Amino acid sequence: MVPLSVLDLATVVTGSTAADALADTTRLAVLAEELGYRRLWVAEHHGMPAVASSAPAVLIGHIADATTTLRVGAGGVMLPNHSPLVVAEQFGTLVALHPDRIDLGLGRAPGTDPATALALRRTPDLGADTFPQDVVELITYLIDSDGPPTRPAPVPGRGYLPEMWLLGSSTFSAQLAGLLGLPFSFAYHFAPDLVDQAFHQYRSTFKPSVLLDRPRAMVAVSVLCAPEAEEAAWLAGPSALAVVQLRTGRLRPLASPEEAAAYRYTDQERALVEATTATHLVGDPETVHRGLVSLQERTGADEIMLSTRAHSLAARSQSLRLVAARWTADADRPSSSSAA
After folding, report:
1. Over the Cα atoms of the chain, what is R_g?
2. Superfamily classification of domain 4-331
3. Residue 192 contacts by C-beta under 8 Å, 6 or more apart in sequence?
């Protein structure tokens, strides 16, 4: 069985604060470590009332302090929002503090609305045309020992290399990851349509590098597991409502299951939710497990990352426990050949 990992958005829910959300994410990381998950990533989002992880490097350091073996990282840092030198300094510092435990996933989307992106970048150019060059520049700061003397030298920097990944929801980053010889993680949890093409593009263009000698792929999927399917569907209600709120610009903290159940969807909104959540794995442990196995077999992923959005830490923790227990049960079961 391939390793499982966790993607968490430090979700701010109705009746809570950003401080509560950050504390819950830290508690979830401690649990993920206890349950045997390989890594926990936090994402970079800005100006979203339901997401408190706007400064991933700061949050990663805090989570790494609270854990001992869990890999902790960004899924991801939206590189066009930042200077590659600043990112190299931040993550070089994290690696110096927590050796062999820090991941740096890089994305090219803004992770916010245009006005906030403008405030972040301080330039009217909100594109990501220089993303490939920025990735190469960032890698060079961390591994190049023979650069020109005029090149800035971050401290900590060279020699303090996080595990680097490219993130994507299309074939662009898949191809770039292959050409640069980097691990690649696909955002199946919100962009499932291109997963097959993206992984094919990644593997077919892969060139070994000083960072990686063969393709290494991860797929992120939305998962919400409960003892019974009915409970899982109830707990997934807020996430479904969030789809409508995001698409219509009515951003707010994540609703409670009761608020979500009381919402009256229009026909168009219902169709949007059904289309968006069709690939989410919501149900009892056996249903979710079959979905994870099927996704791994389809994609050939070397690792699966679970994104679980629910109104309470208890619901998220329950989901991680149930998925891990069922996954471990398969891993511990003797194969037919060994049993023979």
Report:
1. 20
2. Luciferase-like domain (3.20.20.30)
3. 278, 279
